[in-house]
Amino acid sequence: MVTGTLTILGHYAFVLFDCESSHSFISSVFVQHVGLEVEPLGSVLSVSTPSGEVLLSKEKIKACRVEIANHVLDVTLLVLDMQDFDVILGMDWLSANDASIECFGIVCIPKVISAMKASKLLSQGTWGILATVVDTRESEVSLSSEPVVREYPDVFPDELPGLSPPREIDFAIELEPGTAPISRAPYIMAPVELKELKVQLQELLDKGFIRPSVSPWGATVLFVKKKDGSMRLCIDYRELNKVTIKNRYPLPKIDDLFDQLQGATVFSKIDLRSGYHQLRIRDSDIPKTGFRSRYGHYEFIVISFGLTNAPATSCDEPIEDVTLCRLDVDPTVVERLIVRQVADDFIDDDDEQLSHQSRSNDDK
């Protein structure tokens, strides 16, 4: 038994879709309740119910409009004294509309006809509606179509090509007076971590980011698991950071940045690929980055994660580039900073850029 609630002449009705019924019926109680107009049948029709009872139908509602699955269809309903349902749609309606009953979804769907049959029906004066489906989803942005990417392909590589060129200002590690070199014994690692350590050390050597060291400084190394399950190599520079003179560079405040963006609707974001590794360490300070591992003693030539003052330097360097760019109108090629290719970063009108403001307001 397939039932449902449909709209009959603008009124909700409890409907039974009955393949065993030869005709379609409407409850006399529903007719009186809604106030529908009826007309007499040419002759009295005897109707046998499943319980064996015989009911008589003397009236009908012609061209009664039934709404189903966003379709409006006409049906002639015979008035019958029944109590369980407001309307019964029988084989006369199902056959006339080429409808099939999908029992799994408990819906009644008019059968789809071919284009030739539709053309024939339209030529005979059948009422038709033309509708089109429009894909409102935003098309995926292709980075290759961005003019800036095409003009400067060397700025958007998949990986850093190697050691960055020398810049005017290198990262310095200024120590408190009287500080002696600090060295710690390596942490114990599991076999899987030792295997990963060997791989990542070789990658850093191949790229020129680290080199073998004989420095008296020796930090320890450990791994931190990322969200995707991979392991990030971290150097424990906490002892070095304790004796490093802190850089009081004024990092930009998020509220100030949003004040400058008042009225803006489209945002562009440039995310430097491994930004720390694009900034070199001052030659005299390279030995201070020394770290000890199972596979040898190494030191960083570029900024490593975990060094104090690194955020201020990494923030100051791009800002200086942008200041120069405003004169040259060429922000991406100043000193050839390498940028990650993220399509949504170039033209972004969503709320991601404004999420900090929402969170800060919540905290207040």
From TrEMBL:
Classification via InterPro entries: DNA/RNA_pol_sf, Peptidase_aspartic_dom_sf, Rev_trsase/Diguanyl_cyclase, RT_dom, RTL1-rel
Q: Which residues cross the membrane?
A: none
Q: Where is the Reverse transcriptase domain?
A: 224-313
| Highest taxon listed in the record's lineage | Eukaryota
Extract the Pfam families matched here: RVP_2, RVT_1
Parts forming coiled coils: none
Q: What is this protein called?
A: Ty3-gypsy retrotransposon protein
